[in-house]
Design a protein that fits this description.
- The protein is mostly helical and about 475 residues long.
- The protein has helices at about 1-10, 20, 35-40, 70-90, 95-120, 130-150, 160-175, 205-225, 250-260, 280-310, 315-320, 325-330, 330-340, 345-350, 355-380, 390-395, 400-420, 430-435, 440-475, and strands spanning about 30-35, 60, 180-190, 195-200, 235, 270.
- Strands 1-2 form a two-stranded antiparallel sheet. A two-stranded antiparallel ribbon has the order 3-4.
- Helix 8 (about 205-225) runs antiparallel to helix 10 (about 280-310), helix 10 packs antiparallel against helix 19 (about 440-475) and helix 14 (about 345-350) packs across helix 17.
- The longest helix has about 40 residues, at about 440-475.
- It is globular, with a radius of gyration of 33 Å.
Length: about 475
């Protein structure tokens, strides 16, 4: 009776049972038909959409249990309804189909991102990929390069790129919602008893820094959006935009200005201003946005420096340090730092005659290496010797210890160097920390603050370019 009922339901839904399932006397020895195999695969999410499983082939296996027809018919119903749903989608309007195709492409992109996170960027799947923290850091960096890498002008961001940045950053930052710490709280029960319970809250560094970074992100996007219908425009190097209607003489004078500025960055579009320069309102707007982006740059840089300072120093970096801080700095710098009663870092930097940012970065690496070399020596006199506790141990060491004094002077010199060259690249220690970091929360905050720092710096540079061309044009008119 039950078997006949199952067969009727199957026929109502267009299900064609195999001959073996109709023959009750041959159930014990019959092989499972292709439809039966399809029913088993409908337990998975993918198999319900599989058309290739429907055919005339057979699956050889053991005898089916007595309850198999009911399970088979129910699962077949799901498969048939899924196929009907797919056919219904094909009858939608073209606009809805385009929306669905866009959603499918976004879904495929998110699948790719998720797969790379799980594989640690090791596409072979052999488990040789990097840790999750490094993968997320690289993903945020690459996303920034994809969205903002080709944007070299003061103009609103492309709506598609803006949506892509917001959508994918929301996805990457969502991991911070699950990074929590347990804190004790007091709670009074209905009977008046006061008990202490553990409750979870966002980790303190994420709770403080992540909302600030998101605010800085929104402010930078607003700065770009504010440059609509501007009085200036852009032309590629060696040409003048079609928007220019100035005379040949004015065009020639503009070329003399732009060539001098673009020698080191020939790929950057050249800003153009009308004859006589910009209006006072436009110049005031540029100065205001430049000052705002300068403050954003400083805030992002401060957050990035704070996160980097909290990261653990890798053992590989400590093992690579020389035995002597003097070997890192050289005789002349070491002599000045060790013999002077009071260090004047600005005077020392002036005497070094640093000619380029590359030399400044090389000096920063040497000073930082010497600083940790002297800190290590200062800590060796203590009973504790773990490099992870170097920062804590420095507060316990003798303030009159020579190594401690030299380490403090090296730190002061490094701070002055970074203040003089705010656009300085990351030092070897910073790069090493990012490479070996395993804290996912720190990886998100560091990479997010780093790309915002770069973004703000670029906007300031673009504004300075326009101000430079405007000033030069007004000086020529005078």
């Amino acid at each position: 009776m039950d078997n006949s009922l199952s067969s009727d339901e199957s026929y109502d839904l267009g299900y064609q049972p195999s001959p073996s399932s109709m023959d009750q006397s041959a159930v014990e020895t019959s092989t499972m038909s292709s439809d039966s195999f399809l029913c088993r695969r409908t337990y998975s999410d993918v198999s319900a959409f599989s058309e290739s499983a429907v055919g005339d082939g057979s699956y050889s296996g053991d005898a089916s249990p007595s309850c198999w027809p009911n399970v088979k018919s129910n699962l077949s119903n799901q498969a048939v309804l899924s196929r009907l749903g797919m056919k219904k989608r094909m009858n939608l309007t073209d606009d809805k189909l385009e929306d669905l195709e866009a959603m499918d492409s976004e879904l495929e992109l998110m699948k790719e991102r998720f797969a790379k996170l799980l594989l640690g960027e090791d596409m072979s799947g052999s488990g040789k990929g990097v840790c999750t923290a490094v993968t997320i850091s690289n993903t945020i960096t690459n996303l920034y390069a994809t969205v903002f890498g080709a944007n070299l002008r003061l103009e609103p961001l492309n709506p598609e790129k803006k949506a892509m940045w917001k959508r994918e950053m929301d996805c990457l930052l969502s991991v911070c919602d699950y990074i929590v710490e347990l804190t004790p709280v007091s709670q009074t029960l209905p009977n008046g008893t006061c008990v202490e319970m553990m409750t979870s809250r966002p980790r303190s560094d994420i709770y403080i820094n992540l909302p600030a970074l998101q605010k800085l992100d929104a402010m930078l996007i607003e700065v770009l959006d504010s440059f609509q219908d501007t009085e200036f425009w852009y032309a590629e190097q060696g040409s003048i935009s079609s928007k220019s209607t100035s005379s040949a003489a004015a065009s020639g004078s503009f070329r003399r200005i732009s060539v001098q500025r673009s020698e080191d960055k020939w790929w950057v579009p050249v800003p153009c201003v009308p004859p006589g320069g910009l209006s006072e309102k436009s110049r005031k707007h540029l100065r205001h946005k430049r000052d705002s982006c300068n403050q954003i740059h400083k805030a992002a840089m401060a957050i990035n420096s704070s996160i980097l300072s909290e990261m653990e120093i890798p053992e590989s970096y400590m093992a690579s340090l020389p035995k002597s801080g003097k070997a890192c700095l050289g005789d002349s710098i070491y002599r000045y730092m060790s013999t002077s009663e009071k260090l004047s870092p600005e005077h020392l930097l002036d005497c070094l005659h640093i000619a380029s940012e590359h030399e400044a970065l090389e000096l920063a690496d040497r000073v930082e290496s010497s600083m940790y070399t002297w800190r290590r020596k200062a800590c060796m006199s203590n009973s504790k010797s773990s490099w992870v506790m170097v920062k804590d141990l420095m507060s316990e060491t003798d303030r009159n210890d020579k190594n401690h004094v030299l380490a403090e002077r090296a730190e002061t010199l490094l701070f002055s160097l970074k203040q003089r060259y705010p656009e300085l690249s990351q030092t070897s220690l910073d790069t090493c920390k990012i490479q070996y970091n395993k804290d996912v929360g720190q990886a998100v905050l560091e990479s997010y603050s780093r790309v915002l720092e770069s973004f703000a710096y670029n906007i300031v540079a673009w504004i300075e370019d326009v101000i430079h061309v405007d000033r030069s044009m007004r000086n020529q008119d005078q």
